[in-house]
Design brief:
Elements lengths: L4 H33 L1 H8 L2 H4 L9 H22 L5 H30 L4 H28 L5 H20 L3 H29 L5 H26 L3
Helix pairs in contact: 1-6, 5-6, 5-8, 5-9, 6-8, 7-8
Length: 241
């Protein structure tokens, strides 16, 4: 996670493949957990131990302690204020499709190895498809600024292409008759993911204002969570390739 989603798409499939073959399922889980724990010392590179070792300041009076709740109050007030954005149609129009996109991408990517194996493909085949998806995700992310310049700085067309390409790529993957067709579909899928994911922030800034990006993204988080809880169980019971 520290190195980014594109790097994970390239490395994690082969890492999990090796761990599963070498140590079995339980051993792979334990090793993966240990790798995740390494994020703690890795974070020290960016947050020095000396900074975290500062002597804490203890409040001496009740009045001082009460002041510490101002931070929590500010967060709650900001959250309540952000909820008022739900009355704006444009916020809902932006947040709802992105929530469905986010949930669909997460579950589709997670189920690919299991579903491919259930239809006769090997774990190496699924790792190959996910790797191709990661490579094209990186490529699309790198060329994204150039595409925005081609549209005079607008990110709306790029996001629209991404939304339109995702189902096309998924249909191609579902009906692909061999590993090469499925890999090509995953390459298209990875590019579409990048077009939508990278465009969401700039689209919010174009629609409203740069200062509104975080507020709208907080509302988008509510939509993401709701879609995750609703679509997740349905995806698990019905997604077949």
């Amino acid at each position: 996670m520290i190195l980014g989603s594109s790097f994970n798409m390239l490395v994690v499939p082969y890492l999990l493949l090796y761990l599963h073959a070498e140590f079995g399922f339980r051993g792979a889980i334990l090793v993966t957990g240990g790798v995740c724990l390494n994020q703690i010392p890795a974070s020290m590179v960016f947050h020095p131990v000396k900074w975290h070792s500062k002597k804490p300041h203890h409040c001496a009076t009740v009045q001082e302690r009460d002041c510490k709740t101002d931070h929590l109050r500010a967060v709650l007030e900001a959250f309540i204020s952000n909820l008022s954005l739900l009355k704006f149609t444009r916020v809902v129009v932006i947040s709802l499709p992105f929530a469905v996109y986010f949930t669909g991408v997460v579950f589709t990517s997670s189920y690919i190895p299991f579903v491919m194996q259930s239809t006769g493909y090997t774990l190496e085949d699924s790792a190959y498809c996910l790797t191709i998806m990661g490579i094209f995700h990186i490529m699309a992310t790198l060329i994204h600024p150039c595409l925005s310049f081609a549209f005079r700085g607008s990110h709306f067309p790029i996001m629209a292409v991404g939304y339109g390409s995702l189902p096309v790529a998924l249909v191609g993957f579902i009906h692909g008759t061999n590993i090469h067709v499925k890999a090509a579909s995953m390459a298209f899928f990875g590019m579409s993911m990048s077009f939508v994911g990278v465009s969401i922030g700039p689209v919010i800034a174009e629609t409203f204002d740069a200062s509104m990006v975080l507020r709208v993204l907080s509302i988008n988080g509510i939509f993401d969570t709701t879609a995750f809880l609703i679509i997740g169980p349905l995806t698990g019971s019905s997604l077949t390739f």
